[in-house]
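Below is the data:
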Amino acid sequence: MGSTSAENHGGVGRRALIKRSAALGLVSVPAMSFLSACASGGGDGQGKAKAGKKTAKNPLGVNETAQMEFVLFDGGFGKEYAEDATKIYQKDFPKAKVKFSATQKIQSTLQPRFNQGNPPDLIDNSGAEQMDMGVLVGKNQLADLTPLLDAPSYDDPNKKVRDTLRPGIVEMGQFDGNPVWILYYAYTVYGVWYSQKALDSLDAQYPKTWDEMLQVCEKAKKKGMAGWTYAGKYPYYIPFSLYPMIGKVGGREVLDAIDNLEPNAWKHPAVKACFEAYYELYKKGYILKGTPGLDHIQSQTAWAQGKALFIPNGSWVENESANVIPKDFDLAVSAPSGIDSSDKMPFGTIWASGGEPFIVPAKAANPEGGMEQLRIMLSEASSKNFTTKVKSLTAYNGGTDGIQLTPGLKSGVAALELAGSNVVNPRLQDWYVQLQKEKIGVAGLGEMMAGRLTPAEAIKKIQGFADEAAKDTSIKHYKHQ
């Protein structure tokens, strides 16, 4: 399954968020038990390691003899990259004991330790058994990572760690304001994925406007190829290209209003224009027949076999579909096509954001050690090691020089360069998981793309879901600052 189970985005394990609707059950139930467990308090915390002396080489003041414990989610990214980084820690602090372990059962392994007050110093809180971030933050279970962000970077003492990170990483780790509770280590590029070879065979360029998109799809149709397919059973993949398109057409503030659950946010003209554009793909017969019945693997396989030209997805698709993508496919990703020249943001506007959330528990015995391990991982060498091994970018803004990049990764880097500061990061999928997946995705967009709802009906339905979520006092609400 390639880099599947580890590449998560937003604040929710990617597999939990995306793989199957059933995964929601896995996530929401333990999250509740975690909430009640945390509420009951538990232990008084373990003995904190005495802080060490702050020096140029040890800016966080790590105790050089204290044990540092690191628990990693054992997913598609594997554990080698993390083990390599712990070896650097060991070299820097030869008198310290490093305890490293990897598990898929983050919640069941670590929840009891949080309750007893003796959690590890660094955790990769990912996968289907991810602990609920909102609950952890709400119960004051996490350490503020600001000292790490303000520390000198591992490579350059004149640059703070925060100045070496990709767009959106710091903001994603915040809940309501300043403290940064989470450091997302992987970096995912979302967009429209295609075979450059297939596009060349149609003698076509990637379409920048919707009229051009329809022309390319018509060309494909004449050659017996569908324009689009998508994960019909999990239509919450559609936003990977639709949301940044809405941002491109109407500006970032439209996406912010949607995230903030503002009344009538979905009734904005940009939303209407983009929904109507996508619906046109259905009406003109440009979507691969049978797509509404396909899951993510089946749709990706049909696309890799050349049955459809475009698919909305994230950069994990390269690893996940490695066994079906032909050698000469020439995998590429692009930012979404817009409507026309009246769009508020330029072509190239793309959704990219952090995945793989790392946390340092508030009651860790050696929180400075946990942060130092992260500082090492955010060095150029560790970042390059990760990218080379798992075909994914990291939060470190660079780290690709001199690496032989795979076609998808190379295209993702080029897409980020083209985007510049025009990177959007819709937060619905980590702030309101159920709303995004089951309601907007399945009951709204899925029904529209299958032709069972008109764009106007879909918008009305989705606005209703958003209004319900806004009024629901049982869920915590977040807002863009």
The longest helix spans residues 22-39. The chain has two domains: 68-180+360-378, 189-352+424-471. Confidence is low (pLDDT under 50) at residues 1-45. Strands lie at 68-73, 98-103, 122-124, 183-195, 226-228, 308-314, 331-334, 350-359, 393-394, 423-424.
